Write the structure tokens for this entry.
Amino acid sequence: MENKLTEQEIVRREKAQELANKGLDPYGSRFDRTHNTNTFKAEYSSFTKEELHEMENPPVVKLAGRIMTKRVKGKAGFAHIQDQYGRIQIYVKSDLVGEESYELFDKADLGDIIGVEGHPMITNTGELSIKVIKYTHLVKALHPLPDKFHGLVDVEERYRRRYVDLIMNEDSKNTLILRSKIISSMRRYLDNLGYLEVETPILHPILGGANARPFITHHNTLDMPFYLRIAPELYLKRLIVGGLDCVYEIGRLFRNEGMDPTHNPEFTTIELYLAYSDLEGMMDLCEDLICSIATENLGTTVIPFGEKTINLTKGWRRAHMVDLIKEETGINFFEVPDYETAKKLALEHGIKVEAHDYGFGHIVNLFFEHYCEEKIIQPTFVYGHPIEVSPLTKKDPKDPRFTQRFELFIDSREYANAYTELNDPIDQKERFENQLKEKELGNDEATEMDIDFVESLEYGMPPTGGIGIGIDRLVMLLTNSQSIRDVLLFPHMKNRGK
RNA sequence: GACCCGCUAGCUCAGUCGGUAGAGCAUUUGACUUUUAAUCAAAGGGUCAGGCGUUCAAGUCGCCUGCGGGUCACCA
């Protein structure tokens, strides 16, 4: 399998062997650090060169990291070592570490991992550094690092070898660290409000909670097929029936569909349910949650995104889908009387109507997608989705053709989807039946009947608001990333041919 | 799935009209005890993604395949 080794790789293997011959483990052992680059800089950056130089008992620090640059000048040299937090320069002098250790430093390659013990110092050029008194070679890197100046640029390699990307590209590292911090902020926000984080099954016997093509797998002992979940919704609502009044789940969903800069086959969402709330409650929560996360992690709610500036400051527009269509086309669907009239309008506007688009609401939805989505840049809650495309949502009591649902759009993309939850078991059963009808008409993403879920509603589910937020897209927005792959540690790639 | 673009040394990139493959970093050897893209001198390193074709001659032109990126379609 392994290709022929390059000259550099052979040399490094020989160097590893030389270390072993000296009794040094080329893949060394525990090294107790007193500082990392961050705590070291925090502790010593306020000192002057003279203060550090003239200390009678200079402090002794121990740090470890990967050699990223190296400048040897005869019997002394400099290097930068890098840990999770950044880089620090080390100054290694033969007089101080001894000739044997100095030779180890001299032979060390970029990419090797070392530990140093020494004193804080400031160089003639003013850089806070470590004057090494004890040098420990920890790990030999057999493979050379990319160009120290240009880093790893090739997109394919950055995704396939994310570890190299993390070593070489600070932007990638910062983005992926920020992802963790954003999710952590989200948990903290909800935990402070008393929400309970729960875990529901990922293997689902019945497809439900969203419209999407699933991954299908098989359990041997039960000898039955399972779907990887496309949404956790129906399980979380069972918990609301069960009396857990405010729950959320952060986790992976799986949809067997196309991949592009905003879609990955597995992606992360948060779904959240709050008993005795409703759609407006979810709008308020969503706005406050995202603003809090932005403020906590970026210090602002006005953020750059590609060529645009997105203003997340609270007070987002709330608009009915029908009103937005009217703004763009002049058509007022509140006054369109029936399906036939709506369909005629669609055909006049060159909108393709499929066999399973059999209802008035399907047409309304097609108009929205065709004319409105791309126009929405700043955060907008679009509410009032048609009943046909919202099988789990409570009807609008004033106009039962529409539901109490919203989607949050920013820069033409959907970020969140929320409902006043449908808690009428008889209505819910009919909605499922309509989904089955769509399936027969060729909508292979229609949901399946979940009779156990209907029965749970028969026990009584409190009036409830629920919301799902796409975390990958939110992280993209807050890190100004243009591809979902930039916010995934290990994006999926096709196997390389031989 | 369709179309467009890309693939040259470990990495980043040049490569003109089709005429024996280039640089910087990295590597090796030598010099250098405060450098920082260290510097100076010398050297080694290539299945030009893979294949087929056109041609006296292909990194370069054509076709096929692979992988990647983008756009569209799909994904409410």
Q: What stands out?
A: Chain A has a mean pLDDT of 94. Residues 261 and 483 of chain A are 4 Å apart (CA to CA). The two ends of chain A are 10 Å apart (CA to CA). Chain A is about 35% helix and 25% strand.
